[in-house]
Amino acid sequence: MTPFAIAGVQMYVNALESNVDGMIQRLDILMARFPWTQMVLFSELAPFGPLDRFALPPENEALEKFQAAARKHRVWLIPGSMFLKNPEDGRVYNTAVVINPEGEIIRRYAKMFPFRPYESGIAAGTEFCVFDVPEVGRFGMSICYDIWFPETTRQLTSQGVEVLLNPVLTGTTDRDAELAIARATAAQFQCYVFAVNGLGAGGVGKSLVVDPTSMVLHQSAGQEDMFPIEVDLSMVRRQRETGMKGLGQVLKSFRDRSTDFSVYDRSSGTDAYLNTLGPLEVPHQGTRAGLHVDVPAQRVPDVPAFKGQEAAPGFATPQPDFAPEPLPNPTAGIAVAPVAPHAPAAPAAEPHNPPVKPGAPAGSGPTSSG
User: CA-to-CA distance for 238 and 232, rounded, in angstroms?
Assistant: First the structure.
């Protein structure tokens, strides 16, 4: 058995003031109540809420406070995510950090799939986040909408990720669909899923923990909640070897597949249908998009506010004049060959997960894949 205690914190998030001190207070309470907790995960954009006007530089006082809190309690801490602005090109990224028990930031992860068209003005990250907890196992991170794209989890679990950490900000009617996706992800990729949502400006709650058999270990309701769950990573390894309940061995079946998928070759033409779907834009009143009728609809220019976006009545929110986003780095997410989790590790010349140096790009660490 390889036990590890992970706690999610579902809390009320203010949109117009900092939530950092409230997060640290809840962390103090959590550790007083459940001192056996070893990792703590907050929801997406919990520190400052969903408005990108509060974007901060990559190094800031809030991160320093979270580092001190992790060091104080000797826990792995993922304090949700926050909008961080690249000082070189002005792009704003929805970024989560991983802080180890020594208070060092060892990974930074920028959300790959901003919730467009609603989450406008937010740049997409291209690097994956994989990190090891020494003598425990391998962890990976995706943020909210990322989990809707199974390719993201495929990349992570193909590198040995056993626990998927998924901070969420969903305050809309599709939360139940996300719960189904979280359960399906756990079964498809034979991993634990921790999907932590917020409240108020941070979401509608319903945080979820799922084991590799798709069994729900905990689901929050619509009030504040803190839920430490002890996972057993040896169960992940057993299931990946013998199948879920002795049945489907999906990771090995994917490994031994007899076909590759041309849809991932952008020049293959396989995805030509997707180009018939029209632009990625917010639907408007009376829209008949996709119905193939000739009756024009009256366009209403108001755009609802959402993550990273504020609307003024009667005017569409202007889009930032950024240069086109780069295509993904073809080597992004390529980790060093992992040692089998159950095998004894060879002596390392360097410590596990060296911290990210201030100003260093994400994924620059020797074992980093994003």
Answer: 10
